[in-house]
Fold this protein.
Amino acid sequence: MNQPRPRIPEATVARLAVYLRVLTGLADGGRSSVSSGELASAAGVNPAGLRKDLSHLGPCGVRGVGYEVATLRDRIARVLGVERSRACVLVGIGNLGTALADYAGFGSRGFRFVGLFDAAPARVGQRIGGQPVRPIEELDEVVAGTAATIGVIATPAEVAQSVCDRLAAAGVRSILNFAPLALSAPAGVDVRQVDLSVELQVLAFLGQQRGVAAPTVEVLA
């Protein structure tokens, strides 16, 4: 009987995605192997942490040699489920939504927008990234017709929860939320929050901490 695969911690999954990005860049540059130290440095982690993360994948590298770039890239891609294309829908075509819809990097990582939606009549019919902007009333039809499983919310906060509810009801099971609001989703629907203002506030705090002068020590004669 096959044993169930151990659950990988969410924080580790996030770092695996970073390793995948680094490995993809190395492979595109013609690299065939990479040491744990080099990969860890490029990903912003320490080598011990890297090895612990990769231990969730089973044996990966060779001591004293490192990792085969293509092999490790493909293994991480399989674990993350990005070796095949994922259909996504995006709701909210303001400045942020437009930038997301027009970003070509998602496609190269296995994510493609199959539907763009907005409630503003002035935006409906525009084409962004090769896709037409549709009225929100067509969301259910597009999700059903494309088997989209990922939804991205880039709306104002006051409508984000209703959009989340609508995505979940349509069958979307993973939601990335850029609206500055903590969403409530039904069981079986995963929500990831990206609050850009919070991230900027954290950076401001860190910068302030670095800017604090060290206390002066008086030397007594």
Observations:
- The beta strands are 33-34, 67-68, 86-91, 111-118, 127-128, 131-135, 150-153, 174-177, 190-193.
